[in-house]
Amino acid sequence: MLEHYHRELLNFLTRQVRDRDTAADLTQESFVRVLAAQSAGQAVLDLRALLYRTARNLVIDQHRRAVHRQHEDIDTLGDSDQPLAPRHLQPEAILAYEQQARALVAAIESLPPRCREAFVLNRFEGLSHQEVADHMGISKNMVAQHIARGLLTCQACLEALGRPRSGHGAASQ
């Protein structure tokens, strides 16, 4: 019975995949799957429809695998074609960030002790102006002055490094 559909299915699959050898493989696989379904006791009401559905599914699976494999092996790419790491992970950027961080730490450490304490409590510990004032036993206004001085010191540090004010980082929070 299945032999009756072999040429018909082979021609259909050849039109689908445009390769006679691949179509022959898919035809054979379609027959194997349909025979396996019949052997397992599955009732097959329309053998031709099941063959075509199986064949279409195999074509779709083959297409998905081909699309998934359609990429160049990264090891075969030349140095200039290798994908770059994100900018923040580039060695030059990492070095610049480290230098900036060291300079900012030095700038913060250069602040007078009470000013530095208020700045660190607010900017790095996340305390509000009122919480810093209560913790240090000073007025909220004095806390604001200390924090403003710390921010100006950090901004001057960044400008000295040749970086414009960005509105990011510890200096502008």
Could you please describe the fold and organization of this structure?
- The protein has seven helices and no strands.
- The chain is mainly α and 173 residues long.
- Helix 1 (3-17) packs across helix 2, helix 2 crosses helix 3 (47-69) and helix 6 packs across helix 7.
- The longest helix has 23 residues, at 47-69.
- The model is unreliable at 168-173 (pLDDT under 50).
Please summarize what this structure is.
The protein has 7 helices and no strands. The protein is mostly helical and 173 residues long.
Which descriptors apply to this entry?
mainly alpha, Arc Repressor Mutant, subunit A, 7 helices, 68% helix, elongated, disordered C terminus
Distance N to C terminus: 78 Å
According to CATH, what is the class of the largest domain? Mainly Alpha
Mean residue pLDDT: 85
Measured by DSSP, the beta-strand proportion falls in under 5%
Topology as a string of helices (H) and strands (E): HHHHHHH
CATH hierarchy: architecture of the largest domain? Orthogonal Bundle
Radius of gyration: 35 Å
CATH superfamily of the largest domain: Winged helix-like DNA-binding domain superfamily/Winged helix DNA-binding domain
Low-confidence stretches: 168-173
Total E-strand runs: 0
Helical coverage, percent range = 55-70%
Specify the overall morphology: elongated
User: What structural category characterises the helix and strand content?
Assistant: mainly alpha
The description of the largest β-sheet is: none
Tally of separate domains: 2
